[in-house]
Amino acid sequence: MVKISIIIPLYNAEKYIEECIKSIIEAEPLDKEIIIVNNNSKDKGPEIVSKFKEVKLIQEIKKGPSAARNRGIKESTGDILLFLDDDLVIDKNYILEITKTFDQDKKILAVGGIAHSYDRKSIISLSHEVRLMGYSPSKQGIFEVKTIPTMTFSTLKKIIDEVGAFDENLMGAEDYDICLRIRKKGYKCVMNSKAIVYHRNPTNLNSLTGRWFRYGIMWVEANQKNKVISEIMNTIIWFLMILLSIILLTVDIKFIFLTIILFILPWIIYYSVDTLKYFIKYKKPEALIFPFIHQILILSRCAGILYGVLKIKSK
Predict the structure, then answer these.
(1) Are residues 175 and 256 in the same domain?
(2) Count: domains in the chain
(3) Which site in 54, 98, 181, 311 is 20 to 30 Å from 280, CA atoms measured?
(4) pLDDT tens, 79-138?
(5) What pLDDT score was predicted for residue 128?
């Protein structure tokens, strides 16, 4: 029987970690190894974790979630490594669905679940759920992706020896980096829409845009490290074209229609398809503003990418 090791980096999560652990213990299959790596927490999180006899608590002083995850890998004994964040709750069948996915195709060596928002009232939190966290009402079953967020990332332990562990020098985009290395070896990264977690997304737009900006910076470093220049250039060209359109608007107002038709409208339509399906499914009128929030986040990420490129050039 395949053994599963669940690895969770812990940092100042005393408010959430108990609920997270309980959801894992109650999930199928019951036979699993739970490893929580305390990464310099300053609250009572480690004390709460130590009360659970089912959990192996490890200390890692090197800062950063990647260092904590890598320590968890070293301590693990399972065939499947399943990574989770300390502020989420998993569905009862989450682990079962993840493990079943690996059996679908020998080329599948990274599997992710779908992150629904834990907070069902915040518009900002819910907007992050549609597409941006892998959830898409139009995509069901198992489907291939470029990146799996680390909060739901799982892989086979044997692949770590082949592609390497998480890059501890990246303070973001480490999920993109490891998935890129897996895909470059000819393997597949997939999502399973039946594998569901409930994650505490940011409820503040400033916090969310800041996260996306930082992700953009690290995304550049990951691509540079893996020598994938085309991805960076395509994004920069798109961003500069929008910037040029905004500058042209200051010259002549008639360019506003050109900007909307060429750049803004296609993206709004692209995101509106899933937003509409989300609206129909959950009956939330607030969902109609999701495409506009997505535009802000994408522009934040593009700005981070541009900053990341300039940062590299200045070195």
Answers:
(1) no
(2) 2
(3) 98
(4) 999 999 999 999 999 999 999 999 999 999 999 999 988 988 888 888 777 655 555 656
(5) 76
Residues 122 and 176 in one domain: yes
Do residues 193 and 56 both lie within one domain? yes
Environment class of 39 (CB within 10 Å of its CB; exposed 0-12, middle 13-18, buried 19+)? buried
Q: What range does the domain containing 47 cover? A: 4-203
- Of the candidates 233, 201, 205, the one whose C-alpha atom is nearest the C-alpha of residue 219 is 233
Same domain for 191 and 220, yes or no, is no
Same-domain status, 116 and 229: no
166 and 271 co-located in one domain: no
Judge if 196 and 244 occupy the same domain. no
Per-residue tokens: 168: 């501890």
Q: For the chain, give the DSSP string.
A: ---EEEEEEESS-TTTHHHHHHHHHHSSSS--EEEEEE-S--SSHHHHHTT-TTEEEEE--S-SHHHHHHHHHHH---SEEEE--TTEEE-TTHHHHHHHHHTS-TTEEEEEEEEEES-SS-HHHHHHHBTTTSB-TT--SEEE-S---GGG-EEEHHHHHHH-S--TT-SS-HHHHHHHHHHHTT-EEEEEEEEEEEE-----HHHHHHHHHHHHHHHHHHHHHTT-HHHHHHHHHHHHHHHHHHHHHHH-TTHHHHHIIIIIHHHHHHHHHHHHHHHHHH--GGGGGHHHHHHHHHHHHHHHHHHHHHHHHT-
CATH code for the domain of 117: 3.90.550.10
Which of 149, 169, 203 marks a domain boundary? 203
pLDDT digits (tens, 9 = 90+) for 18-30: 999 999 999 988 7
Mean pLDDT of 71-76: 98
pTM for the predicted model, two decimal places:
0.84
Last residue of a domain, one of 145, 178, 203: 203
Task: Say how many CA atoms lie within 13 Å of 309 toward its Cβ.
Answer: 17
